Olfactory receptor
Amino acid sequence: MEAGNLTGILEFILLGFSEDPELQPFIFGLFLCMFLVTVLGNLLIILAICSDPHLHTPMYFFLSNLSLVDICFSTTIVPKMLVNIHTENKAISYMDCLTQVYFSMFFPILDTLLLTVMAYDRFVAICHPLHYTVIMSPRLCGLLVFATWFVGIMTSLLHISLMRHLSFCRDLEIPHFFCELTQILKLACSDTFLNSTLIYFMTGVLGVFPLVGILFSYSQIASSIRKMSSSGGKQKAFSTCGSHLSVVSLFYGTGVGVYFTSAVSHSPQKVSVASVMYTVVTPMLNPFIYSLRNKDVKGALGSLLSRVTSCL
């Protein structure tokens, strides 16, 4: 292919997990089931929170936003992969790939920032309970969510604006099941120094700093819990933090796993399998973590399902 900026007519080829035709029905069925569980589970969480006035609190407001982000994140990646498997057509247009790159960065950023905001909410609730309603006002909660979306939008736009100036002049096969930014940069024949520098910088700012904030919040929470004299108070504090800690551990654990797999392994298949953990598995498991470990959510889900079945 002739060197130059060919972005107006480009098509990329998503190689996926395997080219074995016998595995395609299994992969299609597996990811279809996981996608449906993800959408249904997170949608039930959102509906339960909206329908139960007792859950109209900052903690569950942030949780409903997290569930919405998880639905959108999976929808960005899985349906296109299922269509490619079903039609046996692995091509994706340049603009569709660019859109997928944008949202595959945007929603993980939202996940990271929302988990940080939720940690701050738990910090205020446990360390400053008497001032909780004043500090975590509806106005502040709205501003925090707006800030997470604004940062995600601007950061992703910055990556895309740099990516649009790249030229591609060799085989455009992506050894992945979606358009992932670092894989796209490997196909470029123009200089990607600014792109790579931005990736490392933003990973530090939007990955490390939020994690430090979460760890600091929970260090203060642990200190406050140790000072509690009531065992009931300690148990309640642990129950409200347990689900969030589990989701944080799963999110950052899978992210670190993908990073180290990419750094150590030269097998595209291993990197793709590792990526499934944070793109598909984590959004699917989040509703189960919050519903199984939280009595309020379980009660709201039970009431919602009872009303639905009574109407049928």
The beta strands are 11-14, 91-93, 173-174. Residues 193-227 form the longest helix (35 residues).
